[in-house]
Amino acid sequence: MAETSSSPAQVELASKTVQELITGGKELPERYIYKGSDARSLDASLPLMDIPIVDIGLLTSPSSSSTQELEKLRSALSFWGCFQAINYHGIEPEFLDKMSEVGKQFFDFPPETKQKYFREDGSTEGYGSDIIIAEEQTLDWTDRLLLTTNPKDQRQLKFWPEIPESFRETLHEYTTELEKLNEILLKAMARCLNLEENCFLDMYGEKENATMIARFNFYPPCPRPDLVIGVKPHADASAFTYLLQDKQVEGLQFLKDSQWYRVPLNPEALVINAGDYAEIMSNGIFKSPVHRAVTNSERKRMSLAVFCIPNPDREIEPVNGVVNEARPRLYKKVKDYVSLYFEYYQRGRRPIEAAII
Fold first, then answer.
1. Whether the Cβ atoms of residue 98 and residue 177 lie closer than 8 Å to each other
2. Mind listing the pLDDT tens digit for each residue in 323-352?
């Protein structure tokens, strides 16, 4: 989406990454002072979230353990809208470490090395900081590397770092495994609701045509974590989002019943949350949770979020079996829902508002 900035200050902020701002030693720019309704809780002592842990190996097992794990998945998605996933063959903890490490190495390179991958005007793809689309917009304290990984023919490899040398191969292997995991979870969604196994998967569409976006998030140390936010509160315009957390530094928080909760670190797990597409397809049974990222005054942090999104040409609506007298239809049929997302996010609104009947 094109930037709408016009003032010199906006142009400067849009052209500088957060890493460059803090290296310059300047005062904290006003555009980073967060004024959202949750601003007072940024640096507060918050409770740790009792996030459910789902064993993917048991979820796909033919044994009776599968039934218990399906119930755990149903409970997690309907209450929190998220869970931690462990024991998925293909994404072992050692491989998670490797994926995280190549991302950290990229952000550690000097600015002139990363400049080659800087996003172009009017595009969200590539390396850079927050995109300015509105005069009143508060900027996130994060630098990002955003890459489309699927469909394969839409990859813009000019933005895929060639350093470290293993970056491209590792990301390709990682997202290929997530495609398989996404299919497993879409089927498990149906099974835990006693629906036809492929109903969500058929609505989602063939994985070859679905969209998958990888976003590396780098949060430099922030001088005022009580005033500045890493990522503003939002829900995701995805079916599922797969988050690889930093192993050592907390930052992700979820909102539940007007209370923010810290997500505990688990180096052997992925944090998986349902997105708005999952909420729409399940007619609100599964929740697309609001979450945010906070900053740290002393330590840098990096995470990797991968968003699995239906093809924009597909029409998405509640699947058969989730609408009845007890639960009337809550959502309209939507198409190219993601096109609404970015503008709604920057204005502090949830795009799912547009889908509610």
1. no
2. 999 999 999 999 888 877 766 766 667 889
